[in-house]
Amino acid sequence: MRIPFIKYNHQKHLDELAKIQQNADQYQIIYNPKAYRLALLENIKQAQHRIYIVALYLEQDEAGKEILNELYQIKQQRPNLDIKIFVDWHRAQRGRIGEDKAHTNANYYYQLKQQHPEIDIPIYGVPVNRREVLGVLHLKGFIIDDTVIYSGASINNVYLHKREKYRYDRYHFITNPLLADSMVQFINDHFMPYQAIQLLNTGTHKTRKQIKSEIKTLRQHLMDANYQYNGNADNDTLSVAPIMGLGRNNSLNKIIHHLINITEQKITFCTPYFNLPNILVRDIIRLLRKGRQVELIIGDKEANDFYIPPDQPFNISGGLPYLYEINLRHFIERLQNFIDKEQLTIRLWKDEAQTYHLKGIWVDDKWVLITGNNLNPRAWRLDLENGILVHDPKQELSDKFNQELNTIRQKTTLITHFQQIQASQFYPSQVHKLIKRLSRIKVDRIIKRLL
Q: Is 417 among the residues known to form the active site?
């Protein structure tokens, strides 16, 4: 059977991507956040050589303190252990909305360092752009010895289910020396030499204005950076490939585009915020017209981390889940005929007051992308993102990936008609007024690009 040229071109890019051979027994998936926290702590306790943590933030709550205290203990026991922590520079230096401005994660890091003056665990801030709204450190992956722990979760009580609430994500433990080395090398080559990278656990911090040119230099450099490794797997072998992306035409964006367009039977997407870039909407419609199956698993508006219950004070960020829901309703109404033909499947995830943070793509039981990329315009253009592409041509990991998907689906509701999605005229009055005002001056378009 002759392969259409366009599909062949997409397949060619994926076939030519350098890949690292992966042992199926060394790839584990955890299916809930509490078990993930315990496994993360256990891996830290067992570390012998290195611990590199990269996260959007490491918060000064019980879960964050538990992780940092464990790191200080293990460093005291094994002084030669190489420990480095990297978080977003902007996020670390601001408190939560409504909190004292002095009550920041960066201040907590400094207090902790003062309590342990003999132990050096550097915590670096990475400024991806001059302002937080224009780009953050959204790289994922903790490297502990030869294991890459990949999740979209940052470190705090909700992500690690330390107390009653949790934020649901993906939790992958991949033991692979070449993969781990490539991710550590990326940090050492593309973060450490640049003056924009700032130590946070110090008494004073430079201002944004003081490092303005250094931030610009770092961002320009990162737009051309990627993971370096020697591929040792062919296209008949279970493999992994780390991919980095910053800016509109980055490598990760291209891989996502190629993945969608090689789909022969079914593709599944997970995203917490339904705000797809136009190119992905076009790709999905093209697949549907070819008769392919498409499944979208999206967070219900009440499972969105921006959602504000009606009995709590409202602010502009609380309008975001409603803007995303309006997007979703329009999308479903536009493609209702494909839902009627059972080609397009829409699922909304909700578990009482819990929140949903899952991202990723599954294609034909052969390809899986684990990523922190929200598949939205902000991820597509502004944030520093990464992912690990898994190629599983012999379905050696299919049981684990299917269990992951089935576990996700357990908390979902199947949407069979756009009218199941609440219409905007029935939103709470303050939400309705906000959306009308934003739409009238077209600010809603800007907001959805930035948040």
A: no
